[in-house]
Amino acid sequence: MTSLSDVDPLERQRALQAFKGSLESQQQRPPSSSDSGQDEIQLQANAIDPNSSAGSSVMKHDRDNAANRSSESIPHTHTALSFLGDTEDEVLVTVIDGEHPQAIALVLASISPAQAARILPQLDTTVQKDALSRIGRLNDVPEEAVQELASHLRNRVQQCLSKQQQRASQSTGQRALSAILAAMPQPKSETNTISHPVTEKRAAVPTNRIADVADSDPANAQVHSLRIAPETKSNSANDRGAAKATSHKPQSTSLSTDSIHQHLLSLTPLDLCQALGKVGTRQAMLTLCGLPNPTAEAALRVLPKAYAKQVRSQMNTLGSLELREIDEAKSAVAAASMKLNAATSTEKPTAMAA
């Protein structure tokens, strides 16, 4: 029996223990009465007769009882590796993957057979065969070696669990960010694109800013007037008056949330990136969170790859956000972009005059 190579070592060990248990039970069975001799003769006769169903059933019953007694008699000893029995299968597979086959065999022998049977198919085929062959040849392992292996595996389990918690926290932040972006109100100009196409263009280029530039340089008033929609020309005087009356206030405060959003969408990736650089880091990341993914990615592609990667990782760690913070950040970026555009517009006439 010990020379059988195709039999699973665990199955072979259980069969040997069952056979040993059956022998011990037969030796410990006391004679009950004077009929015990006749019963023994009858049992021997039934065992010799291959056609006797009674003899085969009795022997099968004895073998089953002996196997049950032997399996129940196996003590569940507590070792330094017993904590692995409480570890999840996925974590345990990750922990023992790459370890020496002898260590894997010791781990499989230290956990329950059911858990070992679940873990074995998830290992490499070569590792499975090597570990099974080593389990059958396991002897008494020094306690120091077991303690060292247990300490090593315990550290790996803790590292694996900490990585899972980090991934879970990052995924939680991403889900929160996605939920916030999904809950944000859609811009009115996007929903009314078909019915009011001119309104969207007018919101993309605020009339107040164009009027201020035209007043500062009368020579370019005709050029700037071409950028204003026809239906807004009649109201240009009123717009200029309102712009002058509120010149002491930031221009972004006179714009609605939808107008600010459309203004940011109308910027080129380079202009948007320059405007983001004029505000704080948190405001810049909040603004990117409040913009559509294509617009935000286009602005990030302007940056160097290493810096863009750093910005993306910081956006994932923002945590819980409020729509009020996102709106305030977008307003600050819009104001910065308007200042940059105003500075650029004033520099061009100066260069032409020079």
Automatic annotation (TrEMBL):
| Comp. bias (Low complexity) | 25-36
Q: Name one GO biological process term.
A: bacterial-type flagellum-dependent cell motility
Residues of the region (Disordered) are: 1-74, 226-256
Q: Where is the composition biased (Polar residues)?
A: 41-56
The alphabetical list of record keywords is: Cell projection, Cilium, Flagellum
Q: Where are the transmembrane segments?
A: none
Q: Which residues form the Flagellar motor switch protein FliG middle domain?
A: 90-162
What are the GO cellular component annotations? bacterial-type flagellum
Which GO terms label this protein's molecular function in UniProt? cytoskeletal motor activity
Where does the Flagellar motor switch protein FliG C-terminal domain start and stop, copy by copy?
Answer: 263-342
**Keyword Zinc tagged:** no
**Name of the protein:** Flagellar motor switch protein FliG
